Every structure is written in C-alpha cells, then in structure tokens.
Amino acid sequence: MAAPVDSVGKHPAVRPPVNNTSFQKKTRSRLISIPGTRPSVQNGQLLVSTGVTSLDYLLGGGLAVGTVLLIEEDRYDSYSRMILKYFLAEGVVCQHKLFVASAQDNPEDILQELPSPILDDVAIPKMVEQPRLPCEPQDSLDAMKIAWRYQNLPKVQSALASSSRFGHYYDVSKTMEPEIRQAAKCHRFYLPDHPTQSSNTHSPMLESYSALLKSLEEVIHREGFDVVAPMPKSRNILRVGLHSLGSALWGDDLTCHDNPRYRHALTTFLYGLRALLRSSLSVAVVTVPSHLIQDRALMGSITRLCDNAIALESFKGSERETNPLYKDYHGLLHVHQVPHLNCLANQLPDHKDLAFKLKRKQFSIERLHLPPDLSETVSRVSRGELAGAAATTAAACGSGTSGNKHLDF
Fold first, then answer.
1. Is the pTM of this model over 0.70?
2. Which of 123, 182, 199, 268 is most buried, taking the most CB atoms under 10 A from its CB?
C-alpha cells in the first residue's frame, strides 16, 4: 500500500515516551540534623547519648528522642543521681536545652555538681605491654597466664563499647566549669517554689505532678520543641531530668503505705508525660525510689509506662560489699525494659549479668565476670579426708557391733 502524499519525504514526528507505570524511585527521607544526635541503624529513630557510653550500648546505641528512661534508684540514691548528672552534662556539652525538676534539692545545686568533660586520650586508657625477658619464650609466658583448664575457653570482653563513637567522657572527680554550665539554657522546677493548693476534685493526678506537667508543656510549646509547630531555622533537643518521683516530698504516699491513697497519681503523670514527649523533640530521664514501694504490681505498671527501665542495686551496706568476689564492682545493674520503636521486635542486651563500678574518674557498666572457682582441689582433698575418716569410723563401729555393716555419708 502506498504511503500518503503528505508524508512522502518527511520524517515521522517523534512522540515523547509515555510512562504508563506508577513505579517511583524510592528516595531516602531527609532526617533532622541536630548537633548531639544521630539516627539509629536499627529503626532510624533519632538518638541522643546518655553521657555514659556503656549505657548507650545497652539501650541500642543511645536514648531515642521522644522516650522516657526510668532509673530505679539504689538505696542511698548515689549512683542513680550520678547517671542523671551524666545525662544533663551531655546536654550541656551538646548545647541542648535542659529542664530539671526536683522536690528534694534545688535544681541549681544539681547543675553545679555536673561532671567535667575530659579528653579522649585520658578517657580511653591504652594497654601497655610489659617488657619480656629475652630468656623467656613467648609460649611459656602465655601458658603461665591462665590455668590449663581455662586455656581453650574464649576470652570475654568485659567492657561494653560500640565500634562507633557517640557521646563524651566525663571526670566525676571534677565539676564542670561555670562558664560552660552557664552557657546552657536550663529551665528549673523546684517544688517548694511552686506552692500547690489541695483541690476538692477527685483528680487521679496530684497537684504537684499536675503543676510539673503543665510547666513542662509550656516550655515545649514556647521554645518550639513541638513537632507540629512551624519548623524554625535551627532545631534543638530538650533534655528533661526528673529526680525521685514518687517520694513523699512530691506529696505522694506510694512509699509510705501498703495501700496508698494516691495509688494512680504517678502512673497518670507518666502516661501524660509520655504522650507529651511523643509529639516533641524531647527526651526524659526519671528516677524513682522503687525499693521503698511495697506494691510490686504497681511498680510493674510504672515500668511498663516507660520506654526504657533499668534498676541499680548497690552493694553499699550489704554483705556483698565485703565479699571478695565482688571487690571490683560497686553494684549490679538490671535491664527491665528496652524500647521497640518502629520495629516488630526489640533488641535485647546480649548479656544479662551486668555490674557497675565507679573508678577514680569514671562511672562504667561492665559484664559481670566472677573469678574462677579454684576450690576444686581443696574440695577433693576434703572429700578424701572425709572418706578416710568415715572408713575408720565404720571399721570401729563394725568391730563393736555387727549390725552396722554399711554407712551412707
């Protein structure tokens, strides 16, 4: 068939390609870039450091923004208070804003006790190799380091550390310089400065907790930490430190009675706190004197209302303080709950036996490794002596009486 006359000697028009598919190239979403934060490699959640690198490792790389970390205090509130100061000191160094609330000590006194940041070369001691005599072969030295029955066992790393650096190191023997501390913007809530009036309404939340939650909410909305608010030029993180909630100084009677009157006051507050943090660039650390709360079911409800939960068991004042097996540690650390955000399953710590110790300058968490039981030889000798004594006794009894021919030991 002949072509039409119009198209003779002309090139056909080139039509643009038509994309009839709905496929779109997947691009990586832009994450918020804030100093002192990093995205999680597991779920993409924005993380901040607690100030304790070993604790960051236990929590999956850091503390997720919008979550609550519950610290069950030790009996003398020494080490839980120290972790809280680490958390606040990390915020000062990263230029985050702080919100500190307490009913016992003035928040200004807590800020004056923040540890001083130290250099990396001081924080990470290097292993110094001892000089070896030329007459001693290396194989004989390695054989003398450990008993023969432990030679084939793998060496266990006690320290908890990640391959990537996150956070800073601090010297607890020195306090932070006033110039660094005063450069950070901190909001303070001291309960004696906020007198509360008893209301006749049957509210499940105490007036002290209600005033605290209201003050925190005002700071979040006023300073622009709310996610739904228009995004300013530079975003920042609000670190919230709440000291010793549930104590009698907050007006709560959880630690005073077996059947407290304000049974659901703290749980109601934590529920509102977590809802407030979920929609803001904020992260909170809460300490609770759990050893004074008699109702364990209620303590379980408090734990479940927080995203992370750890408990500190100090050896101070107990039998373990003088036990030579625990001479290298100051207490035990128990992980009761880890978060599962943006994922179906949470990542549990690979080691459950954990202990903490306070060195001359640093607070660290390590895997608990007790020294090997070297009493097996002594036990064999003792059993041999006991068997010899039993045989002598049996022979003496057999010569005296013919009835007892067999003795069980």
1. yes
2. 268
